[in-house]
Amino acid sequence: MQLLNPLRMNDWNNRTFFLAVQAFQFLFIGAVALDLVGYQIPVAREVLAFLYLTFLPGVLVLKMLRLHNLGTVETTLYSVGLSLGVLMLTGLAANFIYPKLGYVRPFSFWILFLTIIVVVQVLLVIALVADRRYAGPDPVVTYAPVTPAAPFLMTLPFFAILGTYVRDEYHMVTFLFLLLVLIALVGLAVGFDRFVPASCYPLAVYAIALSLIYHTSLISGYIWGYDIHHELNLVNNVLTPGIWDMTLPYNTNGMLSIVALVPIYSLITSLDPVWVFKIIYPLLFALVPLGLYRAVEKQTNAKIGFLAVFFFVAFFTFYTEMISLARQQIAELFLALTLLAMIDKSMKQGTRAFLMVTFGFAMVVSHYGLAYIYLLSLVPAWLLLVFSEHLPAGIQKRFMPMQDEPGRPRKQIRTLVLPYILIFAAVAYIWYSTVAEGATFAAVAGIGEKIAETLFAETLDPTTAQGMQILTGQSTTPLHGLAKIVHVATQGLIAVGLFATVLRPGRWRIELEYLAVALVFLLINVAGIFVPFFASSLNTSRLYHITLIILAPFAIIGGIALYETAVRLIRAPGRTISVRPAYQALSAFFVVFFLFNSGFIYQVVNDSPTSVALETTGDKPIFNDKEVTGAKWLISAEAERPIYVDATRWWLMKGFSPKHQRYLPNNASRIESRTYLYFGTYNIVQDSVRIELTEGAVTTANYVDAGGYIKERNRIYDNAGSIIYYR
């Protein structure tokens, strides 16, 4: 049976497209109306609203651009990226325009609901007019017996959902253990050409990515982690008054991915912002590996694309630290889409330029750190490309043989050009210097000044160069030391892969723009190890995670290059070399890498476990209902006096009262009088508080007895999960 492919609506004929959009909009409005009058169909409003917001505006923009026959994966990715861009711009415009018209709450349900419907209708009219001559064949999908791999892969996210539920309710991690084993088996199956055919690689990539994110993000009924608490506070600062105050001097307050996108999803889907962060943002963030897979596959092959993405998602930052950085999740999606557009030389130049500028703007207003790193890489990458074009003809033929392929223009049109860099830089400067009182621009300038002051005096100093401290620091156990060796080996593979690509570009067929940015990203990685305060501004693990967006495929290329070199040394020259054993060895290696990073191995042997999902004890920034209730009570009772919390509970309180919280000092006598002291469950059960000390760029933590902090203090609140003291 054949049906129209719903993920490629922009390729449908205009009449069918118009009717489908209106029917979908009718269903969406109907579900919302029924929900508002009290006739709730379970999850109907949430699902339809999510699909409407996430796909429809982008599909309409694609049709406006007359972009067709991109394929299911790319159409889906571009649709989501463009939809998010439209939503953020809609929220921004509403925040400025409606107050001038007398509507003082632009971020309220009815105003946004009606505005988005009008925006979609306007985009529909423009799209039909712009694409009125399109008459291509409608794309169809065949619903026939499929490989068993497809339904199996689809169950992986449900294992994550079930596993986190059982963990929270019964403190059992059996299903989460099973999930990690299944993901490891999928990685091996692809490497050994078993069970998972190449046609299922995109599904496998998305399913694995979403499962890994959900197996941590869905822990507890509240958000957990670090920065995300401040992000939630800023979202509530928009939802409560119904307007975004762009003057609040916080870096994150200038990020539309937080102050516009989350309120829009929350209001239209009727989900609490907590669940927007825990459910919807993972659905969006899991598209990043899919975009990377497609970008790598187009330049190499499907197997290298899958293994590169498996490496990327296996690194622990993807499903631990990134859970706490919603703004960076969205920004990374725009970076992946930028790369995908950058390498697509079949697209019209004007269309590609529009996409790259649009995604660049969206990146700027989504996360300042990622935008600055990307901008930092663009100028040297552009200089490398310009330099390569002025090399002698013989050298160009040696190192750029793809230029001579039949049917390929001798002089390729570069996508990474100076006007694009200048536009990106101008947008970043204007946005960061004006929004949030210029806090973002000032913060980055401060980091640059600190690096300049210490660059030559403190280079290689482990107290200021966080990457150096990690490399030279003593591992807690021999097994953790082995894991460090595995990590270093992956970076060695990346270096070999880049070297092999530069020497034999025709063998690996990596686009020159992609290769130039990759070389700069490798230098950024090196800077994270040696340059003082460079990596610590983001954290070394986050910096490495960001660079893997570009560098991950070179680890696979490096492994294959090493294998081919070894075989040539052993066998007689001239014999054909099969790379199948290389794929098998690499899949096994990265499965081991994954089991170390996920904490699976440490948990099995009980060797200093690291997994927030598998380890249910210990002090983590994961807070239960009683802790959240206690924090809310304290803020509602008294929000003006200082509130002292230890280093872990500090993040919980930051989501409620960022102005009044104070770190517990290492000496209890330094606590001021007429202040509050908040204890969470860990403090109560373990009679211990976490005290952090920072030296240069390195933070160390110690746990000390809690008794000294509560002497002569009165207990004014106790719900058996949190206690509040006052003196």
From TrEMBL:
<feature type="transmembrane region" description="Helical">
    <location>
        <begin position="485"/>
        <end position="503"/>
    </location>
</feature>
<feature type="transmembrane region" description="Helical">
    <location>
        <begin position="173"/>
        <end position="192"/>
    </location>
</feature>
<feature type="transmembrane region" description="Helical">
    <location>
        <begin position="413"/>
        <end position="432"/>
    </location>
</feature>
<keyword id="KW-0812">Transmembrane</keyword>
<feature type="transmembrane region" description="Helical">
    <location>
        <begin position="16"/>
        <end position="37"/>
    </location>
</feature>
<dbReference type="Pfam" id="PF09971">
    <property type="entry name" value="DUF2206"/>
</dbReference>
<feature type="transmembrane region" description="Helical">
    <location>
        <begin position="49"/>
        <end position="65"/>
    </location>
</feature>
<feature type="transmembrane region" description="Helical">
    <location>
        <begin position="77"/>
        <end position="97"/>
    </location>
</feature>
<feature type="transmembrane region" description="Helical">
    <location>
        <begin position="350"/>
        <end position="366"/>
    </location>
</feature>
<feature type="transmembrane region" description="Helical">
    <location>
        <begin position="515"/>
        <end position="537"/>
    </location>
</feature>
<feature type="transmembrane region" description="Helical">
    <location>
        <begin position="372"/>
        <end position="392"/>
    </location>
</feature>
<feature type="transmembrane region" description="Helical">
    <location>
        <begin position="274"/>
        <end position="292"/>
    </location>
</feature>
<feature type="transmembrane region" description="Helical">
    <location>
        <begin position="247"/>
        <end position="268"/>
    </location>
</feature>
<feature type="transmembrane region" description="Helical">
    <location>
        <begin position="583"/>
        <end position="605"/>
    </location>
</feature>
<keyword id="KW-0472">Membrane</keyword>
<feature type="transmembrane region" description="Helical">
    <location>
        <begin position="304"/>
        <end position="320"/>
    </location>
</feature>
<feature type="transmembrane region" description="Helical">
    <location>
        <begin position="109"/>
        <end position="129"/>
    </location>
</feature>
<feature type="transmembrane region" description="Helical">
    <location>
        <begin position="543"/>
        <end position="563"/>
    </location>
</feature>
<feature type="transmembrane region" description="Helical">
    <location>
        <begin position="204"/>
        <end position="226"/>
    </location>
</feature>
<keyword id="KW-1133">Transmembrane helix</keyword>
<protein>
    <submittedName>
        <fullName>DUF2206 domain-containing protein</fullName>
    </submittedName>
</protein>
<feature type="transmembrane region" description="Helical">
    <location>
        <begin position="149"/>
        <end position="166"/>
    </location>
</feature>
<dbReference type="InterPro" id="IPR018701">
    <property type="entry name" value="DUF2206_membrane"/>
</dbReference>
